[in-house]
Amino acid sequence: MEYREIFNIEVMHPVLLESKDLVLVPKNETNKYLNNLGFVVKKTGKGVKVLAPMSQKNGDFQPLSKDDNFTFFIYPTSDVTREVTDFSEIDEGHMISFSNQGLPENSQELVSSQVVKEGIFAGYPALGSIQIIGHKINLTSLEQPINFKAVFGAKSVKWKYYFVSNTEDIDVSLESRDNQISFNELVVDENTTDQIINSIQLNFPNTQVKIFESEDLVPYSNKPIKNIKLLQNGDVLINHLPNPRVEQQGIQIIKIK
After folding, report:
1. How many Å apart are CA 97 and CA 101, to the nearest integer?
2. CB 10 within 8 A of CB 149
3. What is the pTM of this model?
């Protein structure tokens, strides 16, 4: 029996690069249905690909009907995945749903909506689902496999830089190339309720603290924002300030002299 790939699905996330961070699993009913059709599902670096048997008579595919719909669940492999994914447009008790229903011609990015939550794998609830409507795929004129992309958005947070110094009066400011990110200095006084400030002052009572907060929310990303400079008395003290890591939730504490 000869098989040929008819479509593949890639799961795209602005933070997660490794395929091990997300797992794409066919729904039980879909898995059984694919087996009955003689289709084969293979894992790829970013998702799965689906292969269909070709007719031995004319070397073509069997057409897909309106009942040939395939559902896959997208599962995380850690709690970090959910923490960095944007669910702001998703209602409580629901999850993101991707589909080729209503997909514009020549577009690869699946249309997103929401559906009721379902599915658990290795103890983690599904982040979302993907439904491929079979009859939307014209196998009679299929020259190349169709590449579908399920694209997640990243959660955004405001960045905060805390600069701690033993100097009595520290004159520092932040500057970024092309103003790609702007910061405002926050007031620090005896009435502050900032728990990080209180913790620093408790453990290091003789230090001074300056706080700078980004004007806008910054999406989590695996691509760092470079050339954020720390200036002291107008001179560049640090050329490239480290970006807050995912686990730091937008907060970076830096000691300066």
Report:
1. 11
2. yes
3. 0.80
